[in-house]
Design a protein that fits this description.
Blueprint: E1 2-6, E2 9-15, H1 21-27, E3 33-36, H2 42-51, E4 56-59, H3 64-71, E5 80-81, H4 83-89, E6 92-95, H5 99-111, E7 118-121, H6 125-128, H7 130-133, E8 142-148, H8 152-160, E9 165-173, H9 179-189, E10 192-197, H10 200-212, H11 217-232, H12 237-259, H13 261-266, H14 270-300, H15 302-311, H16 316-328, H17 331-341
Parallel strand pairs: 3-4, 3-6, 4-5, 6-7, 7-8, 9-10
Antiparallel strand pairs: 1-2, 2-10, 8-9
Helix pairs in contact: 1-9, 2-8, 10-14, 11-12, 12-17
Length: about 350
């Protein structure tokens, strides 16, 4: 395990040069990996495992995602099974259902967690908040995590590009003495470019904060606020969208993704540089209290409980679609759809 310096802090990192795919195959040669759930992470992780030569099967309930698994080449009765049958056959159970579905299916999965098996997560939610989820594994199984830092779509796309996503890893319970090797082997086999060490609690606290913050919640809030101000001051929808979203996503994000924010600033106009440097402080000061409040809600478990309560409702998907439709039908994102049509690659 290599030591790397991140901004002055040394952390443990594993790369696929160090832990090769050949080593991963050797570690997993006698394992049957069952990917439970074919929603967000399931397709990418299972297909990458299969392409890397790992003995993998899928467990999924009947429905649209089951049909998607069949369309992706999983064969009912051979590599595609019910959740219970897949868990029974597995030596490693990748528990990739949604957090609410993990709670609902836990009695089925727990029944097949016999001694020596491994229970694998890609999110620390179920274990960290087990006083709320009831997910308490037996003491004689390994409990491990590999959490890709991106969507399941990205896991698959980057794998096919030969690149690999970065992932965090953790061992919560080592019953066999092989938990770390199993974790790293699975991390490399699902297509990670490198793996950095964490624990279940830190992973879920940072993940929930990030999703609700700059990754999804805060970015939508900030974009809509700027767009509304420009519109209220007489700017057209296309102009407001271009200055709020299009330039950010199509021009500036690739620049700071490539070499950092300082490099992006250095490659914009002097007027833009001055304004950015002057205004980043007020935006920092205005939003930090919101982020502190958000983190405290996550750490207290209240945010987890809200998710459990909401996502467990029988009409959850109908309610979600109403909220997403309101977002989709807003002027901001209707304008975005029209602007995207104008991009040369969409002509």
């Amino acid at each position: 395990m290599a030591k790397m310096n991140f901004g002055g802090v040394v952390e443990n990192v594993v790369t696929r040069d160090e832990f090769t795919i050949e080593k991963a195959r050797e570690v997993l040669k006698n394992e049957v990996v069952a990917v439970i759930g074919y929603g967000v992470q399931g397709p990418g992780q299972s297909l990458n495992l299969k392409d890397n030569g790992i003995n993998v099967i899928v467990g999924q309930r009947p429905g649209k995602t089951y049909d998607k698994a069949v369309a992706d080449g999983w064969v009912p009765g051979k590599t595609l099974f019910s959740i219970e049958e897949a868990c029974e056959k597995a030596t490693v159970i990748e528990y990739l259902l949604s957090d609410a579905a993990q709670i609902a299916q836990w009695p089925v999965v727990k029944k097949h967690l016999t001694a020596g098996k491994a229970l694998y997560f890609s999110h620390g939610f179920g274990i960290t908040f087990n006083d709320r989820t009831g997910i308490i594994p037996p003491k004689d199984v390994d409990v491990i995590m590999v959490a890709p830092k991106g969507s399941g779509t990205s896991v698959r796309r980057l794998f096919l590009q030969g690149r690999g996503i970065n992932s965090s890893f953790a061992v919560y319970q080592d019953a066999t003495g092989r938990a770390l090797d199993r974790t790293l082997a699975l991390g490399i086999a699902i297509g990670s470019g490198y793996l950095f060490e964490t624990d279940f609690k830190r992973e879920v606290y940072s993940d929930l904060t990030g999703e609700r913050g700059t990754l999804m919640g805060a970015i939508q809030g900030i974009l809509s606020a700027q767009y509304e101000v420009l519109r209220e001051h007489g700017h057209s929808p296309s102009e407001a969208f271009n200055e709020t979203v299009e330039e950010l996503t199509q021009s500036l994000m690739p620049l700071f993704a490539e070499k950092g924010m300082d490099w992006m600033y250095a490659n914009t106009s002097t007027t833009a540089q001055r304004g950015a440097l002057d205004w980043m402080g007020p935006f920092h000061d205005a939003t930090k209290p919101v982020f502190e409040k958000l983190y405290n809600e996550v750490a207290s478990g209240r945010e987890a409980q809200r998710s459990i309560d909401s996502n467990s409702k029988p009409d959850y998907r109908e309610g979600l679609e109403k909220e997403l439709k309101a977002l989709r039908d807003s002027e901001l994102w209707r304008t975005g759809a029209a602007v995207r049509e104008l991009r040369p690659e969409n002509k």
